[in-house]
Design brief:
This protein is an alpha+beta fold and 176 residues long. A hairpin with an 8-residue loop joins strand 6 and strand 7.
């Protein structure tokens, strides 16, 4: 099991995972892939990979985004999940989002992959030069809370974002 940079090699497995995410309507996701058209992505997968590489270099970022590096968790040549490591924080990311966002494809949840992807991401964040990392999750997301705490996240506080949204739990990791 390893974190890899996005690659054409995992296209079919990635597209299968995308289908799972899009069929799962009971849970909200913050992953922008949910709005991508699988047919279009199938035709233009190399453009999607280039977009991710560009964003890791701070190029062609959508408005309000910061540079971020995306990695895919691969197990036995299968796409399991993705993780984004933001290179810096904005005021908004300090409240929600943090440095690291991750997701495991629906069919692979509750199998230990969430804990592993965050563990591996913390090492990648350190390699990117980050010394402290913020990870947030919804107060109602018990699985993510357990993943963060199992990896040594130190609880800082809870943020109320209003608008009947779940409160955000904020955890810090020291990567010295």
């Amino acid at each position: 099991m390893e974190l890899v940079v996005p690659s054409l090699k995992y296209k079919e497995s990635f597209l299968e995972a995308l289908k799972e995410y899009q069929q799962e309507s009971s849970k909200p996701h913050n992953w922008d892939l949910l709005v991508l058209d699988r047919v279009d992505l199938n035709k233009n997968f190399s453009s999607y990979i280039k977009k991710l590489v560009d964003e890791s270099q701070g190029k062609n970022l959508p408005n309000g985004f910061v540079s971020h590096t995306t990695y895919w968790l691969i197990d036995k040549e299968e796409f399991i999940g993705r993780i984004d490591i933001r290179h810096r924080l904005t005021e908004k990311l300090l409240q929600e989002g943090g440095h690291i966002g991750y997701d495991i494809r629906p069919s692979k949840r509750n199998q230990g992959y969430g804990k592993k992807i965050l563990e591996l991401a913390l090492a990648k964040a350190k390699a990117l030069g980050l010394t402290e990392v913020l990870v947030t999750c919804d107060e109602t997301n018990i699985a993510s809370k357990k993943i963060i705490e199992a990896n040594g996240g130190v609880y800082k506080n809870k943020v109320d974002l209003g608008n009947e949204r779940p409160k955000k739990l904020r955890y810090w990791f020291s990567l010295f």
